[in-house]
């Protein structure tokens, strides 16, 4: 007796019904089904060059391989190849969030997807969370944060430069296809604007030149157990931020790291790391907010000799004066 689930050439497998479009209330920035007018598509040519554009009825896309009509793409399911008038072949998909943020217009430098992913995971950004970020820059991280908190959360983005806030507003609105209900964009310097807002937050994310200037404001806004995370490009910024968090005293011991991504070439027997990689983007550092009046346990391990010696000029925890260290080392 043949298995009822078995298919033979005479009885072709039935194709199941297609998935309906993603619910608009999810605010995912994703669509399923046929490509529509007003949506953004990403075309990739045979050399890997990317072209992003908004589908418009009656419009043409031009490249060094001639042109093709937007109308040829509208109404088709993404994931196909088209040929332009001069024989160029293009792969057609909707852009992913990770692709959108690296190709969207920029005001300030963006946080790359590898670091946005680390921030969402390591700062444990959850659906429904209240998140504060500064500065908003071009809005790249904002898109990932809004995805993570969802329609029941809140992302409060502070930016002190109006022209960058405008770029971010345009990018985030384009990605989500409208004004995301969880997003609140505010102009101002976080160090002053956050205390003035009276906000309480589960997470505070700092991506700016001088995050140490915002540690007090972040500490006052963070709920006990909340997470402070900074994204900094240089070792000197990292050092100053970490020491400022230690001196504040209301956080757990800061944890600092960076992530390195290396692509691999996989072809037959030639399986090896790519020759090129992005060697450095930034360092990340997290610390958790203690409850009011509570201090983390004193570190039992002594700092490395010279760590806070005569050549060190940064912020210094109260128990690490030169004299106290000399006495401990004696
Ligand atoms: C590198 S960009 C942020 C990029 C953003 N995270 C993204 O992924 O697109 C840094 C931004 O922080 C802003 N900024 C610097 N210090 C600030 C502060 N104290 N308060 C608010 N914004 C600040 C700058 O104007 C700049 O737009």
Could you please describe the fold and organization of this structure?
It is a single chain. This protein folds into 2 domains: 24-95, Vcp-like ATPase, Chain A, domain 2 (Roll), CATH 3.10.330.20; 99-297, Vaccinia Virus protein VP39 (Rossmann fold), CATH 3.40.50. It has helices at 97-103, 113-122, 140-149, 162-176, 190-197, 215-221, 235-248, 322-329, and strands at residues 40-45, 50-54, 60-63, 66-69, 80-83, 89-93, 130-134, 154-159, 183-187, 201-206, 222-232, 255-257, 264-267, 270-273, 283-288. It has 330 residues and is an alpha/beta fold. The protein binds S-adenosylmethionine. The site of S-adenosylmethionine has 23 residues, from helix 3, strand 8 and helix 5.
Number of helices: 8
Main sheet specs: 7 strands, mixed
Order of helical and strand elements: EEEEEEHHEHEHEHEHEHEEEEH
Structural class: alpha/beta
In terms of quaternary structure, the protein is single chain
* Highest-level CATH class of the largest domain: Alpha Beta
Protein name: tRNA (adenine(58)-N(1))-methyltransferase TrmI
Pfam families: GCD14, TrmI-like_N
Enzyme class: transferase
EC number: 2.1.1.220
